[in-house]
Amino acid sequence: MRKASSFWRLILVVLWGTLLAACGPISVPTYTAVPTLLPTPVPSATPFPTPSSTPAPTLTIAPPPPAPTLDPATVSAAISRMQNRLAIAGIEPLCLRWEDTDDDGVPEWVGLAMGPGEPPRLRAFVLDGDVWHDLQALPQEAGKKDFGLGVYPTCELDVRDTNADGRTEVLVWGHAETSTVLLHIFAWDGSAYTLLGGFEGDAGIRLENTDGDLADEIAVRYDAGGGLVWEAVHTWDGANYGWTWERYDWFYLNRPHVYPTDTPERVVISFYLAVDDRDIPGAFGLLSGGARSAQAYETWAAGFATTVAVEVGVVHELARNGGIATVAAQVLAYDNVNGRIVVTLWDVEWTTVQTDVGWWLENASSAQLDQWEAPYYR
Questions:
Q1: Nearest 5 degrees, angle CA 192-CA 198-CA 202?
Q2: Could you count the other beta carbons within 10 Å of the beta carbon of residue 108?
Q3: pLDDT tens for residues 16-32?
Q4: Which of 115, 186, 290, 315 is in Cβ range 3.0-4.6 Å of 123 for a Cys bridge?
């Protein structure tokens, strides 16, 4: 009786949410930015045109249409079919949603449950009338751990058009081990729910849209040590998700950050993350003593006056001779120029020097690879 009561409470919650909703109202170039110690000024953008003095027309707002109604008989029949089908399958769902997952105008039941096996695996499904669809992950590569959709009970489920292709996708989030996050994205292809992409990151996964195309990029995060993560950014190209950019970020968002300088690569990464954090004094403090004494801080810091954000990636050591190492990187700089966001891609080379307390930045050279205006910035 306790399980049945729990089950019906779940159904009432789903039904109540449904009633309220019904009745209520690709290949991107590699990036480089802000490379030199005295940042290169961003070219001026075309100024905005002078606003017209013509008065704006008066708008007449029509009253909203009446709210749609939900037929109680339809809801009751859908719940009854779902209950019988789950009972036959012997499944007690972790969560259920009534959503139109195949864009036919009729909602389906989409849910998560724990499947059989040892250890158990997260199971996702769509129940379309009496037709059952399992949403399955691809088999894992040989030699790698197979987590499936996840190994822990969770109710992280989303239904929306996440890649702006005009279709509704089903997003299933899962978890495994200490901090491994999994994301699987499915879409109806006319006969079945196909897997558009499966992602796994040991430091998390996040979705974002920075270019204004309404399609979320998927940033898969990996622990890079020293409080840093390496992110692989995947972009939808109309048919597949493909790797388009890499960058470094902080593992934890809490501040202040401790800037790692134990390797030549990390001092370069720390410099640009400090600029991205708007910690300009912290970035200046990563320069070698000679580089700091060669210029006034106020003049140097003024070069970052228009900087909105910075991303650094493709960082690797080119050469080392004793305590001197050369590091290459690519940097994206986002600058506010006359109210517009101008994005510049730089190719940078830093000379770094080793001291008793870590590596420091001596000087840099840079080459601009590309520049464009961002119609939208996060």
A1: 155
A2: 24
A3: 344 334 434 433 333 33
A4: 115
